[in-house]
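So, can you check what follows?
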Amino acid sequence: MISAIRASQRLDSRGNPTVQVEVVTPKGIFRALVPSGASTGQHEAVELRDKVASTYEGKGVTKAVHNVQDVIGPALLKKNFDPQTQLREIDQFMRDLDGTPNKAHLGANAILGVSMACARAGAAAAGVPLYEFLRTLAGTTGPYIMPVPFFNVLNGGVHSGNTMAFQEMMLAPVGASSFEEAMRLGAETYHRLKKVISQQYGAPATGIGDEGGFAPPITLPEQALDLLQTAVADTGYTGKIKFGIDPASSEFFKEDGSYDVGFKDKTSNVLSSQEMQDLYMRLIRKYPIVLLEDPFAEDDWGSWTAFQKVCPIELVGDDLLVTNVERVRIAAEKKACNSMLLKVNQIGTVTEAIEAAQLAYKLGWSVFVSHRSGETTDDFIADLTVALSTGHLKSGAPCRGERVVKYNRLMDIESELKSAGKPCLYAGESFSFPSKLATK
């Protein structure tokens, strides 16, 4: 049983405050650090900030810390929940205690910290690794699936200071034979990309963005994809490494329904929804792109539905869905996408994130686990990815400790599973639907 719940203010990877929660049980102290996004969907669960301008530029989280210490903690302790068997009840109790549909009262950053720490406490009580505990909770069956890492190696949008509208350009080593080999292919290509950028734009252009990706002085997506193709060819991994794109288009959507892909430049470059669709299709035909995330704004349903009819690759909803079962149901009715991005802090509890993934699977969709731009050294999502057999995740470039800690944890899990003789498969080309691997 839980004997104490504590919280404190710590820093994330951008130097902004975040919430750390400690749950104390007879098995020990179990911590969780909560991440934060830069490009956030307006339908996400609410992150509670102090908004006191004189402290951390208004980004302090002492209110959320207070809510854990003085509201959530005491209330949970009175209920005497067992985190090993009652994580769903713990999460539901906190949702009821908050009393709002988006956790605006207590704060998703407060609630999620407790949820994650309780999951770790539950795993310890059960005497199993976190991924095993979450796998049982989710009812996942079949072989263990190691994901394809999608490395965000070129940054634009609100993640960088260049003039490229698209936020992320990703490398996906689908041709690797294991997660560990995928890390090697990705890291080698990342280092080669740095040299290519330095040769074309000079050494100062090799500075990195929030997620460890480079942010050279480029504007067009074609410029970014050409850089990736050159780096992949130079390393000899053409065919083994494919690409993913996250335009994060809600950031440059205009009220009249158009998109300003020049929003970071001095002159606008406004495209209609159809022109955006045409742009994406040209890129898909020209480059080995296997995944496209948030190509349209979060409430531009018509554009999503129209594009889904012709899009030949995985079409991921992030801001569109915000890991929320209600948004997933709406998207399914409108036939807007075929994949859900999973970010635990978008919804605010571990079990709600799992429920959203389960619904996505029932709809025949894929699930793509993601970090946030304001990350921490917490590696929870690595275990969650394996637990849900999602087949792919993104945790930034193979650079910066808060990114690499997730990748290192996944290599540890792969090693543990293989050492124990458990069935462990790398998703590879089947990253969208890794369940197919079990039948091969």
User: Anything to note?
Assistant: The two ends are 43 Å apart (CA to CA). The chain has 13 helices and 16 strands. The domain at 4-127 is CATH 3.30.390.10 (Enolase-like; domain 1).
